[in-house]
Amino acid sequence: MLVFSNQTLKSIKVFAEREYPYECCGLLIGKHTSTDIQVKRHISSPNVTREDKRETFEIDPKIRFDVMRDLEDGSGLSIIGHYHSHPDEAAIPSKKDLEMAFEPELVWVILSVIKGSVIDIVPFIYNTEQKMFDRLQIKIN
């Protein structure tokens, strides 16, 4: 189960709606517990892909590197996943998402943004054995 605070999820929604009609993207910072994965905050990123930003995303590598360095502070937090939006598409992994799943330990959160409004948010984890994404439950505190 992936656990979000209402405030963090709202902030991600606002970002996704602001970036529409392009895919937004960002990092999820949190920790794994014995029962769930807790998102403590998110870091938004410009979509730096050289491809069509309405159909794919790339998190700025400098932002990711800076976050990784900042998380060496002993807080116990780490990058536990990332999120991106699907403008005018369902919140299900695309073929491109499957091709980009090279870090199976990371959670993927996909937001469906239809006509500028977030209508669905779905977390996934990549299943390396079946070579597909498994849907996770989401809980909002």
Describe this structure in words.
With 141 residues, the protein is an alpha/beta fold. It has a single domain, classed as Cytidine Deaminase, domain 2 (3-Layer(aba) Sandwich). The chain is 21% helix and 40% strand. The protein has 3 helices and 8 strands. It has helices spanning 6-19, 61-70, 95-99, and strands at 2-4, 25-32, 37-45, 78-87, 107-114, 117-127, 132-135, 138-140. The chain has an 8-stranded mixed β-sheet with strand order 7-6-5-4-2-3-1-8. Strand 6 and strand 7 (132-135) form a beta hairpin. The longest helix is centred in the N-terminal third of the chain and has 14 residues, at 6-19. The radius of gyration is 14 Å and the shape is globular. The protein starts with a strand and ends with a strand.
